[in-house]
Amino acid sequence: EAQVTQNPRYLITVTGKKLTVTCSQNMNHEYMSWYRQDPGLGLRQIYYSMNVEVTDKGDVPEGYKVSRKEKRNFPLILESPSPNQTSLYFCASSLSRLYTEAFFGQGTRLTVV
Amino acid sequence: QKEVEQNSGPLSVPEGAIASLNCTYSDRGSQSFFWYRQYSGKSPELIMFIYSNGDKEDGRFTAQLNKASQYVSLLIRDSQPSDSATYLCAVKKGKTGNQFYFGTGTSLTVIP
């Protein structure tokens, strides 16, 4: 089954404790991206990757890091999480020629206390 | 000024009616336009995309784009209760790169 898998689905952590949210897709998609969704602000792009070793900033990259060492994986790293990073996070992927967010993961609800 | 603006609603229509959802964008250089549906507690699903001025139809859905007015709309014909969801408008800026901007969404309720 074609899918984008995020882990964990739910996470509660403390301020400053480094964490990684994983994202994996099984469709051989070149393009992957990360979003956060907050009430009243909608979905905002954090980072995107056009292919392996190619990443670029989205609208709200501050406080986040990403890496794309393999085509299927695109982890989101919060080196020192803060309460304002409490949010619902989505990973997305697509074939690069579509240039759109075609498939979204199930979401990761992160709470930083 | 927000990149993409949508009326948050809620919009209520009776079953079988046409639902009309609207979206405006601020950057004239925007190239591609998308509509997503998001059910409560779920991830967004791509419904349609449109690149050129005019209408694009897919089943019960029609996307309309007017670049001169910087306006995108989605029409849902013969609305069904299963269409009740939040509809997100998204815009891709520029010819290179992949920076996407989403609106905050319009909540649609189809009343049986």
Could you provide a short overview of the structure?
The complex is a heterodimer of chains A (113) and B (112). Chain A is 0% helix and 50% strand. Chain A has strands at 4-7, 10-13, 19-25, 31-38, 42-51, 54-57, 65-66, 76-78, 87-94, 103-104, 108-112.
Task: Outline the structure in words.
The complex is a heterodimer of chains A (113) and B (112). Chain A is built from no helices and eleven strands. The termini of chain A are far apart. In chain B, the strands form two sheets. In chain B, strands 2, 4, 5, 9, 10 and 11 form a six-stranded mixed beta sheet that branches. In chain B, strands 1-3-8-7-6 form a five-stranded antiparallel beta sheet, with no helix packed on it. Chain B is mainly beta. Chains A and B meet through strand 4 and strand 5 of A and strand 4, strand 5, strand 9 and strand 10 of B.
What labels would you give this structure?
heterodimer, A: 113 residues, mainly beta, seven-stranded mixed beta sheet, four-stranded antiparallel beta sheet, 11 strands, 0% helix, B: 112 residues, six-stranded mixed beta sheet, globular
> What spatial form of chain B do the alpha-carbon principal axes imply?
globular
- The pLDDT mean of chain A sits at 93
Largest sheet report of chain B: 6 strands, mixed
Largest sheet of chain A, described in full?
7 strands, mixed
How many strand units of chain B?
A: 11
Secondary structure elements and pairings:
The complex is a heterodimer of chains A (113) and B (112).
Chain A: E1 4-7, E2 10-13, E3 19-25, E4 31-38, E5 42-51, E6 54-57, E7 65-66, E8 76-78, E9 87-94, E10 103-104, E11 108-112
Parallel strand pairs in A: 2-11
Antiparallel strand pairs in A: 1-3, 3-8, 4-5, 4-9, 5-6, 7-8, 9-10, 9-11
Chain B: E1 4-6, E2 11-14, E3 19-25, E4 30-38, E5 45-50, E6 54-58, E7 61-66, E8 71-76, E9 85-93, E10 100-102, E11 106-111
Parallel strand pairs in B: 2-11
Antiparallel strand pairs in B: 1-3, 3-8, 4-5, 4-9, 6-7, 7-8, 9-10, 9-11
